[in-house]
Amino acid sequence: MNRSEQTEQQQQQPVIGVVDDAGPHQTALTIASDTPAVAVPSPTAFSSSPQQLAYQQAQQFHHHHQQLQTFWANQMQEIEQMSDFRNQSLPLTLIKKIMKVDEDVRMISAEAPVIFAKACEIIILELTLRSWIHTEENKRRALQKNNIVAAISRTEVFDFLVDIIPRPSRNHLKKLI
């Protein structure tokens, strides 16, 4: 393939990248590695409109979804690479004590508290991440109790916690969700 054929093929399948040195209401896009950047209007250049709001919400949703995917990928990788199961963040004696609260539990194998400790750690980490996402959505920088309540209310997996969270009024709950 000669040089002109390669150039033609590059023009047919452009590679687009974002360059930050455009004007305040523009984003520079580079079409190919050897093509100069072209300034185009960015989504923030338009006035606040329903389209812009929808765009921002979609971007935010995508970012939060990506955070959760990265979280779970990191957790799976950490579990797969784990070799010493005895070193846990949560104390195993406390986990055993909680397990023995159930009268039907008579014997506990050595592996069970380790698995429960890791599961509790993951639940706490995911709940914290989802709570932080809610904090960011409300443009705050401090995690509050209502962010945790909102994370529990929004996530079906955490339905088992609904009974222990404070019951806000219906109007307050609508604001959280």
What is this entry, summarized?
This is Nuclear transcription factor Y subunit C-4. The chain has two domains: 43 residues, no CATH class; 93 residues, Histone, subunit A.
Descriptive tags:
177 residues; mainly alpha; 3-stranded antiparallel sheet; 6 helices; 3 strands
Give an overview in words:
- The protein has helices at residues 3-12, 50-81, 92-99, 111-137, 145-154, 170-176, and strands at 17-19, 26-30, 37-41.
- With 177 residues, the chain is mainly alpha-helical.
- The chain folds into two domains: 3-45, no CATH class; 84-176, Histone, subunit A, CATH 1.10.20.10.
- Strands 1-2-3 form a three-stranded antiparallel β-sheet, with no helix packed on it.
- Helix 2 runs antiparallel to helix 4.
List the total number of helices.
6
The rough form would be described as: elongated
Structural class: mainly alpha
Q: Order of strands across the widest beta sheet?
A: 1-2-3
CATH class of the largest domain: Mainly Alpha
Total number of distinct structural domains: 2
Can you give the helix content as a percent range?
40-55%
Span of the ends, CA to CA: 57 Å
Question: Which spans have pLDDT < 50 for at least 5 consecutive residues?
Answer: 6-46
The second-level CATH architecture of the largest domain is Orthogonal Bundle
